Amino acid sequence: MTTVRTDPNDITSDPVQPLRRGGPRLLRTAARFRVELVIAFACVLVELLLSTVQSAAISSGNITNIAQSAAPLVIIALGQLLVIVTAGIDLSVGSVFSLTGIIAAAMLNHHVPTGVAVLGAFAAGALCGLVNGVCVAVLGLAPFIVTLVTYSVAASLAFVVTSGNSQPVGSTSFGSINSGHYLGVPNYLLCVIVLVVLLQLVLSGTTQGRWLYAVGSNERAARLIGVPVRGIKLVAYTASGLLAAFAAVLSVSYLANAEATAGNGLELQAIAAVVIGGASLFGGVGSAVSALTGAVLVTVIQNAVNLLGVNSFYQGTITGLVILLAVLAERVTRRSRTRGA
Amino acid sequence: MTTVRTDPNDITSDPVQPLRRGGPRLLRTAARFRVELVIAFACVLVELLLSTVQSAAISSGNITNIAQSAAPLVIIALGQLLVIVTAGIDLSVGSVFSLTGIIAAAMLNHHVPTGVAVLGAFAAGALCGLVNGVCVAVLGLAPFIVTLVTYSVAASLAFVVTSGNSQPVGSTSFGSINSGHYLGVPNYLLCVIVLVVLLQLVLSGTTQGRWLYAVGSNERAARLIGVPVRGIKLVAYTASGLLAAFAAVLSVSYLANAEATAGNGLELQAIAAVVIGGASLFGGVGSAVSALTGAVLVTVIQNAVNLLGVNSFYQGTITGLVILLAVLAERVTRRSRTRGA
Amino acid sequence: QDSNSAAQGQAKTVKGLKLAYLAPSLDISYWQWVYSGVRQEARKHGIKVTQYNANNSPGAQLANIKTAIAAGAKMIVIGPVSSTSTPPVLAAAKAAKVPISFAGIGPQPGATDYTSAITADNHRTGVEEGSFVCKQAKQRGGNKVGMLSLPQDRENAQKYLRGARKSFSREGCKLVQILQARTLTVSEAVSQTNDLLTAHPDITGIYGMYDAAGTGAAKVLKTRRLVGKIALATADGSPTTVALLKEGTLQGLFLQEAVGQGTQAVTQDVNAMLGKPTTRNIPLSEPLVTTRSLNSPDSQKVLRRTYPSSAGPYN
Amino acid sequence: MTAPSPPLHASLLTVRGLTRAFGSTRALDGVDLTVKAGEVHALLGANGAGKSTLLAIVAGIESADTGDLEVAAGGSRDRPSVAIVYQELSLLPHLSVLENIATHELLLAGRARGRRRRARAAARAALASLGQDTVIDLAARVGDLPLDRQQMVEIARGLAQGARLLLLDEPTASLNRPQVERLFTVLRGLTADGVGVVLVSHRFREIREVADVATVLRDGRTVADRVPLTDIDDQALLTAMVGDAARALDRPTPVADAVTGEPPLLELPDTEAPLRVGPGEVVGITSLDPSAASDLLLRAWGDRPHPPGQTMRVLGRSTARWSPRRAVRAGVGYVSGNRARDGVWGNLSVLEHLVGPQRVARRRLIARPDVAAARRLVDRFAIKLPDLTAPPGALSGGNQQKMLFARWAPLGVRLLLLDDPTRGVDLHAKVDIFQAIDEIATDGGGALWWSSDPEELVARCHRVHVLVGAQVTATLTGTELTETQIVDALNASGTPAAGTPPLLAGSVDPVRPAGHAGSVEGEIQ
Ligand SMILES: Nc1ncnc2c1ncn2[C@@H]1O[C@H](COP(=O)(O)OP(=O)(O)OP(=O)(O)O)[C@@H](O)[C@H]1O
Ligand SMILES: Nc1ncnc2c1ncn2[C@@H]1O[C@H](COP(=O)(O)OP(=O)(O)OP(=O)(O)O)[C@@H](O)[C@H]1O
Ligand SMILES: [Mg+2]
Ligand SMILES: [Mg+2]
């Protein structure tokens, strides 16, 4: 299956550029991930510019910070991406993140073994996603409304579970989920890398992955071909819920604390990350790498603004404008390529 | 112009149902506004059910209360609808609502005449919308990202304007914008009615209104017969910003107070209202009436939950489930009609 | 039936009457603890309580009070979205002749149509916490201090800040950075503390303005092995921060007596209903509890007035 | 091949008394159809007769209300019994050519080893059999291809499935002559292997070239069942299709003559042999690469910028600052055959489509549609539709196309820019379109017309230019203007990089090409 990824005939996530025939493989892969590369470049640029003012910006400590705070967002954005590729949207991820985090913490505080608590959170997340999937795929309701309802319900249940009290988590075995190492790589980083690589392989190399694009590209045509459209949508929404739970477990393990409001606003951040990375809300376009680069850019900008000590009143303005610049840069490279071609 | 609306050959905003030729005019109009009728019916049903438990539900005081709190949402949803019909989205309306409210209040507190303060707020709202429009229509950026940036920038500026201080408004002439009456109808209600009727007429009866649907339905096809696609999009986004400012002025006039966070979450509510009312995020579908019914349903449910004294932890759950029921009911009537046809 | 049969000062008993508690939002547990105080006191009088949530929106707050009155509430306790948002609320309560008491945040200055306002003295606490953090920072060999602030659109945040600045300038500390919360979550506080320490590695004190700020900053100090090297104090207080105080990661907690505010507010409303005298303004201080004083009976009493036992253990 | 080939002349498909109604429209009203192994079966009928509906039911995509349907060609999961090529293409635009052709191997089959290699071989073979392997990159995104190549991809998908019964719904509507001939060679090879082919086309010449028998539908009923094409002439076929209303097939040659001395309607001066449309002229353009012609037309229409240094004059105006809006108001009209992409608003009614250009031209605020005028258009162009308020999806493909042409008629257009405007329109209805163009020419207007059908250009144009890019490489007029000459000139203009490889009419190797669908299957198994 590893051959799949480097297959030069594999399909680009870029909607606009027909690939030129031939050409070195590296260039073709670069063209395929053009948007992702531009955004990754923007991340590096922000950090480098920042380091001229604040040398601590490119210290290993700060990079670790960025990685640690980006991790949950990347994972949620991956789930979001799966849904967005099918031309759907999942607004519930922020609330599901809160709810599953609270569930895991509450179970741990009732002396449930770590493994069971993690599984419990995963099950809750997958269930939320499944409910979304059933409403969208089987009942044919609009994803925006369905996931807004789940968002509202999950947020409300997150308060119900522990009457709104935040849950400190004492368990060290749970804490080591995030902080542990494997071959010198911290677990949270490992999780992100494995998930991005895995999902990128699934998306570009497996039948089910290609189905996701087929459904988002032309649902009717996909159905006519024989793609199990409902099943694919069910899987996408369920995976999104599950990944939100995964992110919640990592985050609660890191913070040793769960709150009913922990995920507030994460849904918009995740959608923004995916779209900044180059996916289209109309479906059929996007890659796991795009979710990664988009989420990292969002985190890097936040970090830069904090490091520069920008007056917090102006932070939103600065953050917004930098994102706009990055997206414009992406747009300009697309233009010039089209002109040149 | 009034004849336009009842023209039997006027085109339904409902994409799926070919209307049968002939048949009583009333039935045809009913078919055209099927979704809107189902949602309006759901509103009435909720209130009636509620009144069996809590007789105050259908008291004139409570109905006034509902109307007053629905008014800003309806107006914002109208703007959102214009954008959504073109297959766009406007996430900035909540922040623009906060910002323009603060601007109006700050101007009043600097003893600017009421009229000028109102115009200032309108200009600020229209400007925000125009910026969105230029980025989307001229620069070709994704509406989700563009309006998320404006959202972030406007929210941040709302803090900057008054250093985060909320602004009490003493001006009675400003207060009478909301509370005044005309022919016995309170102003806020008048505004809502006039705007809904006006926009419905524009959408279904004017060239520009029809172009909105054409652009949302197939942008390329619209461009190819000479529809000024850019101009139409510019107008839609600008109108959305302007209507957000209008809602903010009404709301600040009512509350005699402006806050930098007053519009938090309004964007999602407005989008939800429009989609519940039957519009599609893929464009080309929706009516001004749909924005009205959707927004009223959202408000009515909130009111019902409060009147019943539902534990606030569970409010999100109940609200979500009732919305789901309403949307399902709408879906079921669509099913049975298609089957029967 | 006359809806005003139990109007202010006329009632023989408040038993069986309805009371509405209007919270500005449920994002902060603080308002839940006020609610719990409200319920504690209401239970004593046989009053039924309903909670309403404004989600930080003044519009929703006004809709809520009208709904509450329509639903038959005869007394109101409110934690308003902001002081300036209160005039229409007071007008609605006055029109319905319902006594209204404030908890946590008071009415707009100059307002008179209310029963009582039980508020924390944020400015004074700001001064005290600023002084505490500054002293602790200087003990650690520096004078630079960072702040994790509530969103500055809230007047309590502005009062805290003004107070803290006063102490800092008086006692020679430098406030090098203010980071404002948006979501008030622990993870936000963690990233902000990390960024604060990256940008200003030389600070020796952190001023927290809300509970999650204490939790988040403590988490970072532990991870970076800076516990004790950087002083940390915060306002509010919850089982989580009390535990951190106990283990010494946090040196001081300025407790807002949420439960106490709730019980006081109900008491004042009931007095108004029964025609007994009421107190207009009750400013409560935010007592300091330190690692050392935590187990004293006084501190334990303060803790009980801060959050309900259902939220977690006191020590 | 694993499935045993049914003997030649065994019935593969038997349809009896099939009915299907959409609301009050009876799309099928008791249809009979029998298809035998080894034959190319022409399914004929005017626009809206029910051909597409019938094929969709046979393919199992639509359900019938009543009637019997028996498909004798046994299928399996690996090898469907029926493959269909849709009239309105059903491709996945964001996916690659490879993934769109080898859908079965790539998207549907399990994870057997060597799957991708086999898929690639099968897709390449299917494209090669159609002569497209050198022009269509397997890695290209389908949404980026021009319409004719998308059509080829859709056909290749149908071939790659190796079905016993192949349903082709107007596969040639956007193909040029060499592409059509290539397809027919493949079809002949398939029938020799016992495959049954149902072919829908409105081009009688193509039908006679490849089909053995014909079934004719009229208003959802079978009016001629399995007539051998040797037993029936074109006039009789047309009469069967449209009833007594049949018009003469021998169309009049253009009445209008070019008015000399008048300023040209359209002028492209910067090319080697300048392109020019004079008053009263209908000028055809043809090229192997349809996007070259599309580009030229869109430049004249103002939707595409001119290359640096080049300009164009349209109706005496410079097109330096040109747009579709200005063009409409100056008296130009534009019709594209790629209706799904360029013309149809899925959410709006037929009425809105019909009044669209008028609304652009007449800058009125109030959009009160002139229903009576719309009804006249529907009558004049015989658009079959349930209701003016119906969405375009309720119209058959040909009727959608007629709708998009008809809407320019009331505008007093002086220059028509036509990008395959008759795609999918039946023979009878084409006459209405031809007459409309003639009327414009008679009044001193003109048309620039690209068509995939050289027969149409020969019959209707004063002059045909052969294009390579925006360069005119040959011009045919008078007696030179014949189909053979057009095809010859095209082949002479063709370089392999520019489009379809040179292929002379009638010069196709009669021996089955190595990569036809039969051997594709062999490779798959
Ligand atoms: N979804 C639908 N809703 C309503 N009517 C429909 C629908 N689909 C097809 N029809 C009607 O059924 C009839 C047959 O349509 P069909 O597409 O089968 O015609 P066709 O023979 O393929 O025509 P063409 O040559 O134009 O492709 C037409 O009158 C059409 O209006
Ligand atoms: N209105 C316009 N203004 C300026 N440039 C345009 C316009 N329309 C199209 N273009 C140019 O044409 C390019 C391709 O446009 P588009 O993909 O819409 O059409 P197309 O090339 O005909 O599509 P295809 O050939 O894939 O069928 C654009 O990138 C742009 O440079
Ligand atoms: Mg057809
Ligand atoms: Mg093109």
Write the layout of secondary structure elements.
The complex is a heterotetramer, with 2 copies of chain A (about 350 residues), 1 copy of chain C (about 325 residues) and 1 copy of chain D (about 525 residues).
Chain A: H1 2-6, H2 25-32, H3 34-53, H4 60-85, H5 93-109, H6 114-138, H7 143-161, E1 167-168, H8 172-179, E2 181-182, E3 185-186, H9 187-205, H10 207-217, H11 219-225, H12 229-255, E4 257-258, H13 266-276, H14 288-307, H15 312-340
Antiparallel strand pairs in A: 1-4, 2-3
Helix pairs in contact in A: 3-14, 3-15, 4-9, 4-10, 4-12, 4-13, 4-14, 5-6, 5-7, 5-12, 6-7, 6-12, 8-12, 9-10, 9-14, 10-11, 10-12, 13-14, 14-15
Chain C: E1 18-23, H1 29-45, E2 48-53, H2 58-70, E3 75-78, H3 87-95, E4 100-104, E5 116-120, H4 122-139, E6 144-149, H5 155-171, E7 174-180, H6 186-199, E8 205-208, H7 211-223, E9 231-236, H8 239-247, E10 252-255, H9 258-274, E11 281-284, E12 288-290, H10 297-306
Helix pairs in contact in C: 1-9, 2-3, 4-5, 6-7
Chain D: E1 11-22, E2 25-36, E3 40-45, H1 51-58, E4 66-71, E5 82-85, H2 97-101, H3 103-108, H4 115-129, H5 147-160, E6 165-169, H6 177-192, E7 196-200, H7 204-210, E8 213-218, E9 221-228, H8 234-242, E10 266-268, E11 275-277, E12 282-286, H9 290-301, E13 313-314, E14 317-318, H10 324-330, E15 332-336, H11 339-342, H12 350-361, H13 371-380, H14 397-406, E16 415-419, H15 427-442, E17 446-450, H16 454-460, E18 463-468, E19 471-477, H17 483-493, H18 517-524
Parallel strand pairs in D: 3-7, 3-8, 5-6, 6-7, 12-17, 12-18, 15-16, 16-17
Antiparallel strand pairs in D: 1-2, 1-4, 8-9, 10-11, 10-13, 13-14, 18-19
Bound molecules: adenosine-5'-triphosphate (2 copies) and magnesium ion (2 copies).
One magnesium ion binds next to α1 of chain D.
Total strand count of chain A, please?
4
List all distinct small molecules, including ions and cofactors, that are bound in this structure: adenosine-5'-triphosphate, magnesium ion
What structural class do you assign from the helix and strand content of chain A? mainly alpha
Q: What do the pLDDT scores of chain A average to?
A: 85
The ordered string of helix (H) and strand (E) elements of chain A is: HHHHHHHEHEEHHHHEHHH
Largest interface: A-B, 44 and 44 residues
Number of helices of chain D: 18
- Assign a percent range to the helix content of chain D: 25-40%
Number of strands of chain D: 19
